[in-house]
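Customer ticket, subject: "Can you confirm the structure for MLH1?"

Message body: Hello, I'm evaluating your service for our small team and ran a test protein. I'd like someone to confirm that this is what the system normally returns, since I don't have a reference to compare against.
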Amino acid sequence: IQRLEESVVNRIAAGEVIQRPVSAVKELVENSLDADSSSISVVVKDGGLKLIQVSDDGHGIRREDLPILCERHTTSKLTKFEDLFSLSSMGFRGEALASMTYVAHVTVTTITKGQIHGYRVSYRDGVMEHEPKACAAVKGTQIMVENLFYNMIARRKTLQNSADDYGKIVDLLSRMAIHYNNVSFSCRKHGAVKADVHSVSRLDSIRSVYGVSVAKNLMKVEVSSCDSSGCTFDMEGFISNSNYVAKKTILVLFINDRLVECSALKRAIEIVYAATLPKASKPFVYMSINLPREHVDINIHPTKKEVSLLNQEIIIEMIQSEVEVKLRNANDTRTFQEQKVEYIQSTLTSQKSDSPVSQKPSGQKTQKVPVNKMVRTDSSDPAGRLHAFLQPKPQSLPDKVSSLSVVRSSVRQRRNPKETADLSSVQELIAGVDSCCHPGMLETVRNCTYVGMADDVFALVQYNTHLYLANVVNLSKELMYQQTLRRFAHFNAIQLSDPAPLSELILLALKEEDLDPGNDTKDDLKERIAEMNTELLKEKAEMLEEYFSVHIDSSANLSRLPVILDQYTPDMDRVPEFLLCLGNDVEWEDEKSCFQGVSAAIGNFYAMHPPLLPNPSGDGIQFYSKNLDQDLLSDAENAWAQREWSIQHVLFPSMRLFLKPPASMASNGTFVKVASLEKLYKIFERC
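Agent reply: Thanks for trying us out. I re-ran your input and got the following:
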């Protein structure tokens, strides 16, 4: 018998701890989790044989610890054997990093909190190759493992299938991402732009990793025991229901937040599914079991992929019973997916309208959309709207919010009247609108997605991969003008609760425009102007009511206004300005100019201008803090909430149906492109 050299012993031990690239990744990621990292990024080249790079934002490694970092059995997790039974960290032996240095080239870059620079050092055979060098570094630690198994020829030859090893690494990190919701995981191949793993919520992680068919067929399962005999544990997780069919069992098991395997539990669950469901369906199972630390023996496997539990048989039996109960209760009904069949005629029409690029011969695979051109929003899906992230929904929203489906149905059903006016002047105005329509802007308006209000005037909208600022005042003004022309002489009416005298309203508008309100001579002039405009509108009352549903009675009172868009009422504070505009700005002698002027005045009146009261959610709150008027503040909040609701649920759906944007909108600032996904990707690639 001969005593082996220490280098031989270490290489043999290293081959047992680091069996393949995924073993190294698991050890490094667990170290990152022990360092309280909130973000862990993994980059792999050639399945991990050429490069494994793990970066985290944890607390880093101190400068004085670097000399012994990669020596065997050096650890910060425990100091004596008894610590194993109260251990909360993933690692504890101090073998992983040391093993890597015996079979690969390891470089560590780290920085701790409060340091102005980090340190970089390379290791070989457990020792530093040079003193730590000062370098620039981001928060946390980055460990690079290069040329794995370079000195183990036989092992390296058995691991030449890089795709297989990379798949194992992706599977490992996917399982980690499912459990650790508070940690951001990413994994990609070296040189790739898109990550193959990116963590989100638990169900979303399951959906992105294992597919929609798994995520939509899951049931939550929970078991808890506080037995006085010592069988204490809590289990929660998800199991697949009777609608899920697979050929292979997938068990994602965490015990005390440690990713492990348990063949006994796996067999017990498979027995339940085989006895309960037809065709011996294989399940998907995610479980997280928490036990007192002293009930778990974690030191039974070289790579720590298995653990031993106190009262393991009882725990498995209780979990098995709960799974069986869940399955039997869920097996009363089964859901079948229904597929919608479209008519042949509509299919042919859609094929003709598609671009030649989209027409592919039968049997040919659909071309994958590049990630920098992928559209990730849907105008019919309200998820991700801006206001959902900026502020909570006001409790004083109008009752109309509860009838959102009714509003959308009304907007879609209310089409342009088939009966158009026979007047040639109106036909010419409508033809002018159609001829000036900008085709590119029309496509944008028809297919844009509302994101939210950027300020009082501009809304954020997305079209394909572009983000725009849209001037809602200009858009709504043009839409109301066009709708006035198209509904000419076919309006429904809004009845005012109390008829309003024209002369007083016009006089009010004149006083609001006056910059010198104290001049008495001007007051007399204003009254004469108000009387003249009142008489003019009385003369035109019959025409205004017949063609525009603006009713002025014999006493010169305004009593009715037209309905331009269903479910939308204009801001009544702007009625005086509207009447003054009718009196001053309309060319009454020429028929075409008259109809155009009245329609423009109605469009401006019905446009979704910001309310006259300052916005209480912005700088305007200073106005209300000075006045200390709670009623005024409440009125302002209601007015602004009503406007934003109308913009999202009335204006934009109506624009998609009716608006034909003129060419001037492409250059007058109505639409301003602020971001493009393709350009952002180029910037990020350079960074």
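A couple of notes from the result: Residues 340-363, 391-402, 411-420 have pLDDT under 50 and may be disordered. The longest strand covers residues 218-226. Feel free to reply with more questions.
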